[in-house]
Automatic annotation (TrEMBL):
<dbReference type="Pfam" id="PF19786">
    <property type="entry name" value="DUF6270"/>
</dbReference>
<dbReference type="InterPro" id="IPR046237">
    <property type="entry name" value="DUF6270"/>
</dbReference>
<protein>
    <submittedName>
        <fullName>DUF6270 domain-containing protein</fullName>
    </submittedName>
</protein>
């Protein structure tokens, strides 16, 4: 059994959905951008977060409070899995403060609460060099936190991209033209993020899923989406994770 930490989207979390008894996910940072986490905190009253889900309420609060650095310092896991799917989400900017404009934030009531001035919307665009360099700076701080806590082999970059195709029962179909355009733009941006992280962090491990299994699923538990894949996607990810674990065990015993 492995103890796992995750920073990323549901794709990384769902690796463990099919076989929940095998491992323990001890930490899951979701719907929070690195830009937000490494900016100044914004005070929020938990009573003002009008969400019935305790998980959703927690992730909105964590995005405001910038708790990632503290959480990492106290985390004891075998592997820490990272993907950057959340970095497709727009931000709210107010001076040096950033908030992730997640779906959970949009339904929390905070955007219309006059107590909070969360700033202007900053959309994600692959050609926005100012925002890109802001992300690079936040990523450098993230890597610094990780290096203080983990050995490189404990970090697993799950290089997830959106898919243009999905399985409708037994037929492979394409997302519509407008969606496909957005998918390609997002993937171009994600590629820059992943490339930067890999270049700055030698010695880490990777999960890369085959094109054959990178297909959406109309019957996915969370609904049809370019990031909700067929079960074979998660099974392949699990196999790659098992291989990383076994290779790490062999290295440890031979040192």
């Amino acid at each position: 059994m492995m103890n796992i930490g995750i920073f990323g989207g549901c794709v990384s979390r769902d690796i463990f959905r099919l076989f929940p008894e095998r491992d323990r996910v001890l930490h899951y940072s979701a719907r929070t951008s690195l830009i937000s986490q490494f900016s100044e905190p914004t005070k929020v009253d938990l009573n003002d977060i009008n969400l019935s889900s305790a998980f959703q309420k927690r992730i909105v609060a964590a995005d405001f409070n910038k708790s990632l650095k503290k959480d990492l310092a106290g985390l004891d896991v075998d592997f820490f899995i990272i993907d950057f799917l959340v970095e497709r989400i727009s931000l709210l900017s107010n001076g040096n403060k950033y908030i992730t404009r997640s779906k959970e934030l949009s339904t929390s009531g905070l955007l219309t609460n006059k107590k909070y001035r969360l700033g202007k919307v900053v959309s994600r665009k692959a050609d926005d060099m100012v925002l890109l360099h802001t992300w690079f700076n936040a990523c450098d701080q993230f890597i610094d936190c990780l290096q203080k806590k983990f050995k490189p082999h404990q970090i697993i970059l799950n290089e997830v991209y959106l898919t243009e195709h999905y399985l409708d029962n037994s037929e492979i179909k394409n997302f519509d033209e407008k969606q496909t355009e957005g998918i390609r733009e997002t993937n171009a941006m994600l590629k820059m993020y992943y490339s930067y992280f890999k270049g700055k962090y030698p010695g880490i491990n990777f999960i890369n899923i085959s094109k054959e299994n990178s297909v959406g699923d109309i019957n996915h538990q969370w609904g049809l989406s370019p990031m909700h894949f067929v079960d074979d996607y998660y099974l392949e990810a699990r196999q790659q994770l098992n291989k990383i674990y076994l290779e790490n065990q062999v290295q440890t015993t031979t040192i």
